Amino acid sequence: MDHTHHSSDPAVADLRGGFTSTRFVLVEPSHPGNVGAAARALKTMGFSRLVLVSPRVPHVQSDPEAIAMASGADDVLASAHIVPTLADALSGVHWSIALTARQREYGPPQWTPRAAASLARDEALHGEIALVFGNERTGLSNEDVERCSALAHIPANPAYSSLNLAQAVQVLAYELRMIYLTSGAKANAPANPAPQAAAPAEPSGPRAASDEIESMFSHLERALVALEFLDPANPKKLMSRLRRLFARSGLEREEVNIVRGIAKHILLKTGRKDDGA
């Protein structure tokens, strides 16, 4: 039994914060058994927040196969939050990482699960984060991938790299657990560790949430079209590359507002209507 929840140790308090601020998102899962097995994978690693985007079986939490595969993680399965879109699943999230089955030429930076877990630990200090998993057959769409801050890819056996959805969830949940536990141990380290290179400066303001960032991209795209810098008939990869650029920066809310202010003035100067959406 895990007794850490009853401890007053500040390191454990930080660890608990990481576990509760992390949500696992399954986009359009097809098989109830995989949903139940994913719930089990989360609970074995100390996580409990499961979000399902438009599952093929609408009431999957009560499906007998899902309950059987949850194997005691019935509470995680029953409390799974069902939403219609990935945008809804990422509501309130300021950083997310998508698991992809293949390397992608475009999109956010791509990491191994261990490196992704290290990034997630740092981002969890600033608020809600999410790990996003695609459909068993088709994975994640390009649009879904670009809505996320970063990508993770499990470097499986190239001759047979077919990981079951719940197994992929287990790998990421394990790596996250280990990095959260290690972070707790570091908090109890000696007071005078060996000198290290200066850490990068922490953001000075609150991070922007996913929906704020998406609104910024819509606003910026309209402005670039108005400038005729972006040709809607031949967009190439401009917005994908801009998303990649901004994904590396860890956008603060104030920075999003600055970009939107620039877009607003571009639209005003070019005589275009700015609906401010």
Automatic annotation (TrEMBL):
<keyword id="KW-0819">tRNA processing</keyword>
<feature type="domain" description="tRNA/rRNA methyltransferase SpoU type">
    <location>
        <begin position="23"/>
        <end position="174"/>
    </location>
</feature>
<dbReference type="GO" id="GO:0005829">
    <property type="term" value="C:cytosol"/>
</dbReference>
<keyword id="KW-0949">S-adenosyl-L-methionine</keyword>
<comment type="subunit">
    <text>Homodimer.</text>
</comment>
<feature type="compositionally biased region" description="Low complexity">
    <location>
        <begin position="190"/>
        <end position="202"/>
    </location>
</feature>
<dbReference type="GO" id="GO:0002128">
    <property type="term" value="P:tRNA nucleoside ribose methylation"/>
</dbReference>
<comment type="function">
    <text>Catalyzes the formation of 2'O-methylated cytidine (Cm32) or 2'O-methylated uridine (Um32) at position 32 in tRNA.</text>
</comment>
<dbReference type="GO" id="GO:0160206">
    <property type="term" value="F:tRNA (cytidine(32)/uridine(32)-2'-O)-methyltransferase activity"/>
</dbReference>
<dbReference type="InterPro" id="IPR001537">
    <property type="entry name" value="SpoU_MeTrfase"/>
</dbReference>
<protein>
    <recommendedName>
        <fullName>tRNA (cytidine/uridine-2'-O-)-methyltransferase TrmJ</fullName>
        <ecNumber>2.1.1.200</ecNumber>
    </recommendedName>
</protein>
<comment type="similarity">
    <text>Belongs to the class IV-like SAM-binding methyltransferase superfamily. RNA methyltransferase TrmH family.</text>
</comment>
<dbReference type="InterPro" id="IPR029028">
    <property type="entry name" value="Alpha/beta_knot_MTases"/>
</dbReference>
<keyword id="KW-0489">Methyltransferase</keyword>
<feature type="region of interest" description="Disordered">
    <location>
        <begin position="190"/>
        <end position="210"/>
    </location>
</feature>
<dbReference type="Pfam" id="PF00588">
    <property type="entry name" value="SpoU_methylase"/>
</dbReference>
<dbReference type="InterPro" id="IPR029026">
    <property type="entry name" value="tRNA_m1G_MTases_N"/>
</dbReference>
<dbReference type="GO" id="GO:0003723">
    <property type="term" value="F:RNA binding"/>
</dbReference>
<keyword id="KW-0963">Cytoplasm</keyword>
<keyword id="KW-0808">Transferase</keyword>
<dbReference type="InterPro" id="IPR004384">
    <property type="entry name" value="RNA_MeTrfase_TrmJ/LasT"/>
</dbReference>
